[in-house]
């Protein structure tokens, strides 16, 4: 089976841990679209279920490698990130950026993101979380991840969703475009990582 034909391991991350958050609803719909797409084995990871301290060890994870001293409760998250071949980050927008929980989860890791594709699904008020995504693109580029151009943004999500689904009938089509691009990059980067170590 070629890289283009096999299913790639996709991790959908719920980035908000805020009380009353809408993230799990969006993530469930995104995961449904990804499973229907057919190109991915999909797992949803909710950061609310993970121990993510804000205090970091002195040595950066880039240099510490496998010996980086992460909390025991973070081990399942680290394992899922390491095994993933692609990511979708589901994020709200807090004060024109993304949640501290998501930043902490990113900062506790390095090689787990490297040379892998990351797509974004955001939600919020009038901007639909786009400011958060702009910041995430900068951060993930620094970690040598490849960010996907076509994301999904849901403005005014509090009136734009009903019964766990977006009211915009074009949303599944936009999701397919995102997933097509994510699948292409997952195949290309998986093949590249197998062919030679990434020169980070």
Relevant terms:
200 residues; alpha/beta; six-stranded parallel sheet; two-stranded antiparallel sheet; 8 strands; 39% helix
SSE layout and pairings?
Blueprint: E1 8-14, H1 23-37, E2 40-46, H2 61-64, H3 75-83, E3 86-92, H4 100-107, E4 117-123, H5 130-142, E5 146-147, E6 152-154, H6 157-160, E7 161-162, E8 165-166, H7 171-195
Parallel strand pairs: 1-2, 1-3, 3-4, 4-5, 4-6
Antiparallel strand pairs: 7-8
Helix pairs in contact: 1-7
Distance between termini?
A: 29 Å
Number of strands: 8
Run of helices and strands: EHEHHEHEHEEHEEH
Beta-strand content bin: 15-25%
* Poorly predicted spans: none
Structure description:
The protein has 200 residues and is an alpha/beta fold. 39% of the residues lie in helices and 18% in strands. It has 7 helices and 8 strands; from the N terminus they run E-H-E-H-H-E-H-E-H-E-E-H-E-E-H. It has helices at 23-37, 61-64, 75-83, 100-107, 130-142, 157-160, 171-195, and strands at residues 8-14, 40-46, 86-92, 117-123, 146-147, 152-154, 161-162, 165-166. Helix 1 crosses helix 7. It is globular. The chain starts with 7 loop residues before the first strand and ends in a 5-residue tail after the last helix. The model has no long low-confidence stretch (mean pLDDT 95).
């Amino acid at each position: 089976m070629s890289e283009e034909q096999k299913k790639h391991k996709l991790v959908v991350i719920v980035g908000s841990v805020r009380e009353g958050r809408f993230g799990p609803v969006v993530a469930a719909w995104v995961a449904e679209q990804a499973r229907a797409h057919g190109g991915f084995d999909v797992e949803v990871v909710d950061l609310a279920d993970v121990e993510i301290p804000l205090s970091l060890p002195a040595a950066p994870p880039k240099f510490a490698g496998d010996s980086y001293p992460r909390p025991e409760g973070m081990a399942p998250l680290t394992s899922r990130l390491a095994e993933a071949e692609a990511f979708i980050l589901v994020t709200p927008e807090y004060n024109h950026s993304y949640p501290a929980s998501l930043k902490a989860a990113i900062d506790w890791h390095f090689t787990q993101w490297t040379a892998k594709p990351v797509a974004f699904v955001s939600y919020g008020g009038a901007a639909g979380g786009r400011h958060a995504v702009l910041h995430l693109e900068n951060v993930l580029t620094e970690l040598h991840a490849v960010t996907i151009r076509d994301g999904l943004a849901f403005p005014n999500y509090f009136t734009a969703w009903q019964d766990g689904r977006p009211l915009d009938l074009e949303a599944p089509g936009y999701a397919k475009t995102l997933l097509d691009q994510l699948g292409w990059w997952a195949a290309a980067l998986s093949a590249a990582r197998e062919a030679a170590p990434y020169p980070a």
